[in-house]
Amino acid sequence: MIMLHSFRKPLADLPVANASNTTYGWSSENWSGYALTSDTQGTYTSISGTWVVPEVSVPASPNPNSEDNFWTWIADIFDGDGLTQSSSSYSATWIGIDGFTNSQLIQTGTAQNIVDGQAQYFAWWEILPNPETQLSTSQYPVSPGDEMQAQIAQQADGTWSIILTDMTQNWTFTENGIEYTGPQTSAEWIEEAPALNGAITTLANYGSISFESTQTNNQNPEFTLYDAGVMIQNGQWISTPSQPNANGNGFIIGYGSSIPPAPTTN
Q1: Residue whose C-alpha is closest to residue 216's, from 248, 245, 246, 240
Q2: Which SUPFAM superfamilies does this one have (predicted)?
Q3: Are strands 228-233 and 26-28 parallel, antiparallel or unpaired?
Q4: Cα 88-192-52 angle, rounded to 5 deg
Q5: Pairing of strands 160-166, 171-178
Q6: DSSP secondary structure, 4-55, as one string
Q7: What are 79-100's pLDDT values in tens digits?
Q8: Cβ–Cβ contacts within 10 Å for residue 219, how many?
């Protein structure tokens, strides 16, 4: 079992603008998507959203045409033990509460990886600092094109529940009575390059992902582009969100630096 972890690297200077003067509110080395934040503890008590599991492919290796790119290329090819890593890349699609400005996080989602050249898909949940719990692929199978629906909510007794449903393959995973004591000061809908053995992995080429029907505290989050963030590694934009849809409760994230069009559905 591959134990991947979610964590977030520090923000770049704000705001972050691209060549077409589209301004995003934040950037990260391993997160892209939308996030809401608050200075008040206990603000976010639930989060939900839907997405379609993407089909992943191995990203092209950078061309070592400069000293910086050369060492990036070497790092992508070899790990600390001299083992090739060029055939492995990873991506995680998830919703969560906390983690944006602190080290605590409750989250659930799907993984879309290329491991030793082979595609790998599975569902999972995680509460930092504990490692992720991967769901059984025989009981809870995940395939490209599956429509996923996820919800995380605090219960009346203070515990939490996670519900993850594959509406295409007609299964639902539920975990109740979860003890979680994070500050509840952020809510996120994210595409991530997760961590493996303490290092950020190479992001798998996931194409694009559309988050729809998003809610927090059972309400429309009413996104603005300033809630969005791009993934930037070695000065390169590698995962980029769109403008929110007209309802403010949906968006698309695209692999690479191009800005996807905003979705027309909710």
Answers
A1: 248
A2: Concanavalin A-like lectins/glucanases
A3: parallel
A4: 95
A5: antiparallel
A6: EE---PPP-SSSEE-TT--EESEEESSEEEEEEE-SSTT---EEEEEEEPPP
A7: 443 333 457 899 999 999 999 9
A8: 9
Catalytic residue among 126, 188, 192, 212: 192
Domain segments of the chain as ranges: 4-255
Instruction: Render pLDDT for 121-179 as a digit per residue (tens, 0 to 9).
Output: 999 999 988 889 999 999 999 999 999 999 999 999 999 999 999 999 999 999 999 99
Q: Is the CB of residue 139 less than 8 Å from the CB of residue 123?
A: no
- 4-255: which CATH topology? Jelly Rolls (2.60.120)
Task: List phi, psi (to 5°) of 233.
Answer: -130, 130
The answer, yes or no, to whether the previous bond of 141 is cis (omega within 30 of 0) is no
Q: CB under 8 Å to 130, separation ≥6 — which residues?
A: none
The reported pTM is: 0.85
* ∠ Cα 207 213 218 (to 5°): 140
* 29 included as an active-site residue: no
